[in-house]
Amino acid sequence: MAATATHPSPASILRLSGIDRRFGGVHAVRGVDLDVRPGERRAVLGPNGAGKTTVFNLISGEFPPSSGRVELFGHDVTTLPARKRARMGLSRTFQTSRLFAGISVEDNLYLAALGVSAGHLRLVPSAKDAQLRGKARAMAERIGLVARVDDLVMDLSHGEQRQLEVGMALVAEPKLLMLDEPAAGLSRAERVRLTETLIGLDSGITLILIEHDMDVALRVAQWVTMMHDGRVIVEGTPDEIRANQTVHDLYLGSGLIEHG
Ligand SMILES: Nc1ncnc2c1ncn2[C@@H]1O[C@H](COP(=O)(O)OP(=O)(O)OP(=O)(O)O)[C@@H](O)[C@H]1O
Predict the structure, then answer these.
(1) Most exposed residue of 9, 102, 225, 248, measured as fewest CB within 10 angstroms of its CB?
(2) Ligand 1 pocket, mutate which of 26, 66, 210 (most atoms under 8 A from CB)
(3) Distance of CA 53 to CAs 95, 189, 192, 242, Å?
(4) So what's the pLDDT on residue 247?
(5) Does the beta carbon of 221 sit less than 6 angstroms from any atom of ligand 1?
(6) How many angstroms separate the CA atoms of 113 and 139, rounded?
(7) Is the pLDDT of residue 117 over 80?
(8) Could you tell me the distance, in angstroms and rounded to a whole number, from the CA of residue 45 to the centre of ligand 1?
(9) What domains lie within the chain, and their CATH numbers?
């Protein structure tokens, strides 16, 4: 164990070692270790303010940790900016929309396939244009938006926009896909489709999911990390998480987990 703590295993897609993050007086993340294997489906759960999104931001490189080490695909990326991590094969969604609202669904997917994101514009004319358009339309079908490919994003429902965000992250063909509350605000039917999309992901994609909808999270995940107050407090399989008293104490009453 001591050897794996200091020498990254090549089999590890993501490893966080002793990660801390402070925002002024707020100690948002406290000594978090995380090890995610290739192809794994991991859910990160926890009540509001537990530190889940901060951990996502530390993984994708929105800001560095106050201390500790982040390794992606076997490389130390602790100080590497987000765009370089994206180029290594990391793709993520955010709690708040980062879509291009004034252009169509297909054009959003096309730009994502091209490697352009709202924060990092890099438009390069490509001979592969027809191929990328084809990928964009195929992804629209996969996420249930094929009837809306020509519609402006601003005219989509909230649920449709959330699904488009997942499609944009996926069409970039990431090695590591990170979704921050993809089921938030979705209808029951949209949640079912999202769950099916995530369960049906190519086995080569590693998925890390923050999700308050326990039904979606525990169906999709093979392994669950539960956070509270900036720390990892429980890890286990979905069955172990369902049976765990601490999880029930944190979630029961909030209606986020069902009995039995
Ligand atoms: N940029 C920031 N500046 C100051 N405090 C922050 C910042 N980002 C997060 N925090 C604080 O860090 C703590 C953890 O927040 P975080 O958003 O990571 O929790 P979370 O588990 O994702 O919560 P939620 O489920 O509500 O999204 C909270 O106390 C939050 O207010």
Answers:
(1) 102
(2) 26
(3) 9, 26, 24, 22
(4) 86
(5) no
(6) 10
(7) no
(8) 14
(9) 36-64+81-89+174-255 (3.40.50.300), 99-173 (no CATH)
Residue 224: which of 241, 204, 200 has the closest Cα? 241
Would the CB of 232 count as within 6 Å of ligand 1? no
169-227 pLDDT, tens digit per residue, is: 999 889 999 999 999 989 999 899 899 989 999 888 999 999 989 899 999 999 999 99
Nearest CA to ligand 1 atom 18: 51
pLDDT confidence band for 1 (50 / 70 / 90) = very low
pLDDT of residue 81: 95
pLDDT above 70: residue 252: no
Sign for the CA dihedral angle at 124, 126, 132, 133 comes to positive
d(CA 49, CA 25): 14
Q: If DSSP codes are grouped into helix, strand and coil, which group holds residue 69?
A: strand
Measured by CA distance, the residue closest to atom 25 of ligand 1 is 48
The ligand 1 atom at the shortest distance from the C-alpha of residue 56 is: 18
Ligand 1 atom with the smallest distance to the CA of 24 is 4
